[in-house]
Amino acid sequence: MIKWIKSYLAFMSLPARLLIFAGMPAAVTVTLLCLPSLDFPADMCVAAILLMTMECFLDYWVFGGIAAKGGSRMAYLMSAPGKMGILRKALTVSMLRQILESGVILGLWGAVSAVRKGDRTFDEGQFWVFAGILLLEYLFIILSLTAARLFDGLWIHLTISCIGAAAMAMALGPVLRRSAVSFWLLLLLAPAVSLVSVSAAMKRVKENYYDRQD
Amino acid sequence: MRRDAQGGMEMELKQAIEGIDIKKKFRGFTLDIPKCSIPKGFATALIGENGSGKTTFLNILAGIRLDYKGRIVYFDEKESDVEKVRERVGYTGPGCFFLPHWNRKQVAEVSKLLFESFDANKYDDLCDELGIIGGDKTRRVSELSDGNRMKLALAAVMARDTECLVMDEPASPLDPLMRDRLCGMIQEYLEAGQGQRSVLFSTHNIADMENVTDYCLIMEQGRIVEQGFVEDLKEKYLLIKGEAKDAQAAERILYSFSKSPYGFEGLCLTERLDQLAGMDIQAETPTLFQISVAVMKANSQMQYRHRQGVGA
Question: A30, A146, A189, B71: which could form a disulfide with A197 (CB 3.0–4.6 Å)?
Fold first, then answer.
């Protein structure tokens, strides 16, 4: 597992590590503290949209353009025996980190907002809402990143992150209304989309070994 | 069979990389190399004008491009699977060789994960020795000059225990001092290998790299138009200088030709030297640069004005 984590960290510069592990949670915290206190799921929804946007934007400094056409930026990796392995490990750990970090931040904010409203109990309904929002956020992160990594440009990453956030905001309504059903549906979708995302990125990278023949 | 460096005993010539019927078509360009050999234990220069297919050919040999027809055999082992020899072949290329946000320290971390034989201490020593980034280990690759990027790539590849280096224009972004050091590094690499290590590099800086070049491949329009040991090529061709009165007659015999109001100059195939008998000429050993330029001109699609008597 250490090698997997090292593979992931190898793709991250120090500023990217600081932003992703400290800057992003801090930004969500500050934003939510500055906003007027909302109800339990509303706080979490705002946090989820913020996290999704930042995840997609910050990914530019980690895997930005990795699946873009033309592998000139990958020449060193392409000349190595374990290149495909290191990239697969890094992409997988990245997804695990995303769901774990989101889970912790959303969980904390769910608890904070509940306490601020004087609600100190945690019932089953709240769990489904929390889990549904978390899985939906993760799903939109993966979908947005799969699209964004096909292009090599900061503005494209930013645009896709904004579109992803807007789409996610629209999808939150049904998830909140039918939280238990949504949870199971998302639980099925999330691993499938994760697998497709990694496979698509790997396929694109592998394609860089080949040109289109005349 | 080949004489060794001391010119004494004959030894059997082994190949580090051998290409057989390599063909690749891409956007109107065709690479067509029926046979080529990179001799083991020597430094081989790949020379050719822009667009002649040098980078494509090097990328195929280094396993960066896999879309070609033909067969490549590595290390005389009948091993044609590049995946099995990647650890033994070091590659450096121009431009964004590393991911742009990596820094010197990250290159080391990634290299340790990628290559079993990567020596982090040697890499650090080489980075310090080459004066990369003035010692700043955190500066990103994208912030480095082309020269420093190439130095970083050289440090990373030289810190591994490889048997063959494939380098795409390593000298181009380097200053003259560093080019001299590059020649030294290639020489040291070959000497340390005691005949088991080989180097293949493409270059436009033929004169700077000549003192380290043992073998040479000259490419034009996707084909290898000349190849051989430099000492053999210097016997195959002669540099001929003569007076203006003989220019017209000499032009028909010489392989390459240029003239000025004072006389003419050109390369002649040694086997045709006797055809110049009776002319007032001087014959000299050409440099690799002169041979390369003559061979490239003879095979180039570019129109050279010397044929009209203006001089090259």
Answer: A146
Tokens 């990647």 locate to B86
Q: DSSP class of residue B219?
A: E
Please give the angle made by the CA atoms of A41, A47 and A53, to the nearest 5 degrees. Answer: 135
Blockwise average pLDDT, block size 10, chain B, 312 residues: 49 84 86 92 93 90 86 79 84 82 86 91 92 73 88 94 94 92 94 92 91 93 92 93 86 87 89 85 92 88 51 35
For residues A198 and A88, the answer to whether their CB atoms sit within 8 Å is yes
Contact state of B89 with A79 under an 8 Å Cβ cutoff: yes
Strands B215-220 vs B43-48: parallel, antiparallel or unpaired = parallel
Strand partners, B198: B164
- In angstroms, the first-to-last Cα distance of chain A is 44
Instruction: Please judge whether B115 and A77 are an interchain contact, meaning their C-beta atoms are less than 8 angstroms apart.
Output: no
User: What are the tokens at B140?
Assistant: 């990103």
Decide if A10 and B109 are in contact by the 8 Å CB cutoff: yes
Q: How far is B43 from chain A (nearest CA, A)?
A: 20
A213 and chain B in contact, CB less than 8 A = yes
Domains of chain B from N-terminus onward = 2-221 (3.40.50.300), 233-308 (no CATH)
Nearest CA distance, B118 vs chain A (angstrom): 11
Which residue do the tokens 């050409």 mark? B286
| Bridge partner list, B219 | B48, B224
Residues of A whose CB is below 8 A from B26: 211-214
